[in-house]
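Here comes just one.
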Amino acid sequence: MQFLFEGHVLDPDRRELRRGAEVIAIGPQVFDLLAYLVRNREHVVSKDDLLEAVWAGRIVSESTLTSHINAVRKAIGDSGEEQRLIKTIARKGFRFVATVTETQPAEGARSTEAEPATPDEPAALPLPDKPSIAVLPFQNMSGDPEQDYFADGVVEDIVTALSRIRWLFVVARNSSFTYKGRAVDVKQVGRELGVRYVLEGSVRKAANRVRITGQLVDATTGAHLWAERFEGTLDDIFELQDQVAASVVGAMAPQLERAEIERAQRTPTTSLTAYDCYLRGLAHVQQGSREAIDTALPLFYRAIELDPAFASAYGMAAWCYFWRKVNGWMADPAEDAEGIRLARKAIEQGRDDAVALTRGGHALSHFTGDLDASIALLDRAVMLNPSLAPAWFLGGYLRVWHGEADAAITHFSHAMRLSPLDPEMYRMQAGMAAAHLFAGRFDAASSWAEKAFTNLPSFLLVGCIVVASHALAQRMEQAQRARDHLLQLHPSLRISEITTWLPVLREEDIALLASGLRKAGLPE
């Protein structure tokens, strides 16, 4: 079912909000909030209703709820002053007041199969056994043919960056550029080049500024999956070209991954390939809960069984063991050894696989404590794929533990810019919190930690930072309340055990964290 209102189309099945042909990028909780308001538009919904529906009843601050309502209003062109679409009912809650029409999506939008060729068309090329994409030449909207070289350079950089993603089949530039200057149908492009996805875009130059837009389309259905706009100055046109390419790929890759995960989840479980198992496992890892990790790990083992050379699957399996370790979920000490085995296998099999090096290298740091070796592995991952957000934010964590708080913040900030709607955003927020804590910026630390806590209250590191940062900032009531929550989740948690699950290098950083926890009353 789709909901139409005020020129917008809300499609809950595709988790997509569109205004005309433009896909509006909004966060997952903002989307859920909008969908809930639209579905329940016949009555006023209370704040408690929203907390239960969107945050599953978790404790959320008033400011968090307000900021999400404001984000919904901004996405649909409303404001707190106008309240044309979403009305605040004093002391009662909110109501969606716009006129809404419900409609079923077109049949073509639900099909996942490419259309058969007509007698006048060549037969469609078969799709590869992994995600496939073609990047079409970007349109030069500047009215200046001299800018063609810039648009072509951006596309070449994007093709090169996408080619570094080992799980992706990328059509060569020479093939995709045969469509330059032609009006094309993306479905036809998909059939002729044998790809599931097509990236198209445009470049517009005005004075000393350049605006570049890109949109990702499912060529089998014509559905728009993602759209974004990037801007910059022409002070260094080639540097801008590189930055735009990195931003496009960094922001688009998670959308591609999400589309592939959804496709895999529609695949019958009786006919799974190694890659489908890997995707299903990845979807659970992104959730971060204990139950999700318990579901993901067997899927990665199955992927390895089906393909013993699947380096990324080894890396993600090792990472599951790491996640159990840092959240106090390991029931058997022998799991450390299995985590090390899998991490080393990922690194051995995936010397040129950025995902394997990222997940395996990061997990290894927590199992062995060798931060320098792990930092080198993640730096290599960044070199192999500069647009891989996890390589940046997990590299940021290693720098936090190594005592390089400001360098870590740079890494987290870059990861957030590359992937602003990333399903693992709460991990980036938690890393920011840890970096600010060790830098002595306790207000910033608690602010970032509260954001991560909202998305995953069971994250042990986040809980510790919330407690310590409030205590060190002399906010004892908040610190003790957070301490009680932490001990409910982990009754056996002790200050003396911090270094058994965090590879913090500097004694002064360990002492600072311990001091905050001790001040709040956490047991020694």
